[in-house]
Amino acid sequence: MEIIDNIPVWGAPVDEAALKQIKTCYYIFGQAAMMADHHKGYGVPIGGVIAHENLVSPSGVGYDIGCGNKAVLTDADRADVRANIARIMDDIWTTISFGLARKNKESVDHELFDDNNDDAWQITQGANSAAWKLASLRDMARAQLGTVGSGNHYVDIFEDEQGRIWVGVHFGSRGFGHKIATRFLNRAGAKDDMDSAPVALDSRTQEGQDYIAAMKLAGRYAYAGRDWVCDRVVRILGARVLDSVHNHHNFAWRENHNGKDLWVVRKGATPAIAGQRGFVGGTMGETTVILEGIENERSSLSLYSTVHGAGRVMGRMEAKGKRNKTGEWTRPPKVTQEMMDSWVNDSRVELRGAASMSRHTVTSGCRKFSPSTRTRYTCFTLSSRWV
């Protein structure tokens, strides 16, 4: 860790584009830190943490409000899972919906859709026929609850060092959260430019209060979706849940730091308050960890935060390359299908769907951050479903 212009920064080498962004954030919010798995984002770097007494940032929370991880420890038999892993992954593929804008194959309901006591459902902006109502997103949200989405979102089955079977998932609030974020960013005049300054809303204003209420509802939605997917996968395993670890890593929390109540915005950063556990996913075929926050000076410097993943050596688009309409490479891939096939074979991972090898191993990121967390469990991937 090094302090750069009053900002604690973990990870080496430091991504200069991300560093430039976090410096802008520090100028606006007054407190900032950057985790070991950082890289450039929209307005706020991925792996960035910012804090202010009154300001909250939709740019900092991002478009995938409540994106996060859940891992559940099961009583599934290790030998049985290993022997049937291909069938298990086929069952997951036919049960869980993956992909952009997909709807759940099952009709799913949840109490949050009927919770008329939640102020967020009452949010209305504008007047008469031009009014925007958050409740207009309810049907879409209901249809997508329990779907995983695309990008680097996944469902994994792990085995830990004790031979126990875990289920892990990574995704967020789907189209529901994206539309909420888009609404508030557009109203604030946000530019579609990664290098633009982040939007800051005053939590004491009606706009700020509306955003916080909508964000919290999207966070509840993300939790409900991850709960549903984990429950379905555990059912496929014919197992029971013995323990669970669940956290957002794209969210804003009201927390007390050094005697002050602050809005702490984490964008691609896992909360790591002393004693709090977090599930941090790794590169496909590499280790995944359950971390626990510990109390020390560096914990405070990080605003009690840690990594949310393995980090990356390149973007997914850079890894996969680009073709023109005739199929010719305009930008050759840095990771070929042959390289992927070799990696999957060597890792002995049962894979469904597409994945990218553009990431570091998560253990390297955690070692860089070990002063503020400790590893509770290390897990190894048996199977993975990515889109």
Total strand segments? 22
Residue-averaged pLDDT: 85
Roughly what percent helix?
25-40%
Using the 3D structure, state the CATH architecture: Alpha-Beta Complex
Q: Just give the CATH class.
A: Alpha Beta
Number of domains: 1
Judged by helices, strands and strand pairing, the structural class is: alpha+beta
Q: CATH homologous superfamily - what is it?
A: tRNA-splicing ligase RtcB
Give the CATH topology.
tRNA-splicing ligase RtcB
Distance between the termini: 34 Å
The profile of the biggest β sheet is:
8 strands, mixed
Please mark out the parts with pLDDT under 50 across 5 or more consecutive residues, or reply none. Answer: 311-315, 351-367
Q: Which value, in Å, is the CA radius of gyration?
A: 20 Å
Please report which band the strand proportion falls in: under 5%, 5-15%, 15-25%, 25-35%, 35-45% or over 45%.
25-35%
Summary?
The protein is of the alpha+beta class and 387 residues long.
Describe the protein's topology.
Elements: E1 2-4, E2 7-9, H1 16-29, E3 31-39, E4 46-52, E5 55-56, H2 58-61, E6 68-74, H3 78-83, H4 85-95, E7 124-125, E8 132-133, H5 138-144, E9 154-160, E10 165-171, H6 174-187, E11 201-202, H7 206-237, E12 241-248, E13 250-257, E14 260-267, E15 270-271, E16 277-280, E17 287-293, H8 297-301, E18 305-306, H9 316-320, E19 322-323, E20 329-331, H10 337-347, E21 350-352, H11 362-368, E22 373-386
Parallel strand pairs: 21-22
Antiparallel strand pairs: 1-2, 3-4, 4-14, 5-11, 6-10, 6-12, 7-8, 9-10, 9-22, 13-14, 15-18, 16-17, 17-22, 19-20
Helix pairs in contact: 4-7, 6-7
